[in-house]
């Protein structure tokens, strides 16, 4: 989150805490003036049923410890991490001339610099002796994927507030149900079009988030973030559901 501030004199640079949940502070600026950027509270994409609570907690922590003004910006970031928490960086052995750099696990300033040095040296034909540590072709354990079930299952349309969403069991599969601000329900397949995992409703961004591989879909099923490339397909409600609603 980014808060309006009058002066940045007390915060010069970047700071990160050691307590849990971890918070970090830095200053910034937009067209309206100075900002204090406050980050904190990690959670897995699609693995939390109340994302909005993280923003409420972050704002409460900030106001308890710092003198800030109104909230100017709010966002969620996805940080990729590997099985051993060391980035994948370098040339792919199966695709000569193709270089990758990913899995920085929120440490892009340091790991990104290391990846840049490594790839530049590989292109020049003199890879550093530590290049193997970042080998992008190293294998991950089969059980590495930490994906889980949807965290927004409900049993009735009445459980979904206007503007909100949830996942319901249609009988032969799960559907993702979003209600417009006027209360009109809209249904889509709840299966992520990447690998079929059941999505979770994100009540802060009003999106459908995949708990397995991080795909994000808009409230109306469109793709916002991959690896999925196809939207969630529309579904029809059983007539009995609509009569009850």
Overall description:
The chain is an alpha+beta fold. The chain folds into 3 domains: 72 residues, no CATH class; 47 residues, no CATH class; 88 residues, Rieske [2Fe-2S] iron-sulphur domain (Rieske Iron-sulfur Protein). 15% of the residues lie in helices and 26% in strands. It contains 3 helices and 15 strands. The strands form 4 sheets. Strands 2-3-4-1-5 form a 5-stranded antiparallel β-sheet. A hairpin with a 2-residue loop joins strand 3 and strand 4. The longest helix is centred in the middle third of the chain and has 16 residues. The mean pLDDT is 89.
Offer a concise description of the structure:
With 245 residues, the protein is α+β, with helices and mostly antiparallel strands.
Report the count of strand segments.
15
The pLDDT mean sits at: 89
Overall geometry comes to flat
Question: Any idea of the CATH topology of the largest domain?
Answer: Rieske Iron-sulfur Protein
What is the CATH class name of the largest domain? Answer: Mainly Beta
Low-confidence stretches: none
Total helices: the number is 3
How are the strands of the largest sheet arranged? 2-3-4-1-5
Biggest sheet features = 5 strands, antiparallel
Number of domains: 3
Give me the strand/helix succession.
EEEEHEEEHEEEEEEEEH
**CATH superfamily caption of the largest domain:** Rieske [2Fe-2S] iron-sulphur domain
| Cα radius of gyration in angstroms | 22 Å
Which bin fits the share of residues in helices?
Answer: 10-25%
Our estimate of the beta-strand percent is: 25-35%
